[in-house]
Amino acid sequence: MLATTACRPDQVEHLSNTKELAVEAENQQVKRIMPADLLRATRWAGDSLTRTADRELRQVLAQKLAAGGVAAALPYCNPDSLPTTDSLAQVLQAKLTWYSARPRNPAHRAALAAAEVNSADTTRRVARPSSEVFTYQRVVVLQDALCLRCHGAPGQDITPADLALIKQRYPQDQATGYQLGQGMGVWRATLQRPGVAEFWTMKTRKIMKKRKPLF
């Protein structure tokens, strides 16, 4: 009698957040990450990292050019070492580098095939050279007219005075003469497996949509 009375439906307190609890329970389950998942996550992580670098570089260079012209912007034309980009790289356990067949900095020189810098090529090249290391590569296209002040045609986009500043800082500079829409080089990222696995976990984590208030 006591047991029957205790189980009456009108005395049961129903939880209002059962969906949220179910989603959280599923998120807490240990899931096996397959090799194909890790390669997919490498592309996601590489896209996130390089887009952050592109965006931060444009913002910084726009500020520096407005404040002090090419002389102020030149020291910051090194997107793989910008603060926000560097912070994300640490989270992803990644190292990001820019390479070009016509670099400004000789340290970024690499022999690239024409197909690798084809501006129409939007494919991302991902690979797993070892069990713990993943690589990512994508083309960098000159899409902002702002960049022409340092990378455009000398005498047309780049003033003689600014060209002299560029040559003074980078005597071996080859990164001029570009046009809008032209491929300038490639981003290459090397990522460690733990960072890739964590990124996959976060990207595939289920998130409940916020409920709209009834009133």
Notes on the structure:
The protein is of the alpha+beta class and 215 residues long. The chain is built from 7 helices and 4 strands; from the N terminus they run H-H-H-H-E-E-E-H-H-E-H. The protein has helices at 2-6, 18-28, 35-73, 83-92, 148-151, 160-169, 193-203, and strands at 94-99, 125-130, 133-141, 183-192. Strands 1-4-3-2 form a 4-stranded antiparallel sheet. Helix 3 runs antiparallel to helix 4 and helix 3 (35-73) crosses helix 7 (193-203). It is elongated. This is Tll0287-like domain-containing protein. InterPro entries: Tll0287-like_dom. Residues 98-188 form the Tll0287-like domain.
List the defining traits of the structure above:
alpha+beta; 42% helix; 4-stranded antiparallel β-sheet; Tll0287-like_dom; elongated; 7 helices; 215 residues; 14% strand; single chain
Q: Low-confidence parts lasting 5 or more residues at pLDDT below 50? A: 21-30
Q: Which percent band covers the strand fraction?
A: 5-15%
Give the number of domains.
1
Q: How many angstroms separate the termini?
A: 42 Å
What is the H/E string?
Answer: HHHHEEEHHEH
Strand line-up in the sheet with most strands: 1-4-3-2
> Average pLDDT value?
84
Number of E-type strands: 4
Integer-rounded radius of gyration: 25 Å
- Structural class of the secondary structure composition? alpha+beta
- Biggest beta-sheet profile: 4 strands, antiparallel
Helical fraction equals 40-55%
Give the helix tally. Answer: 7
* Inertia-based shape: elongated
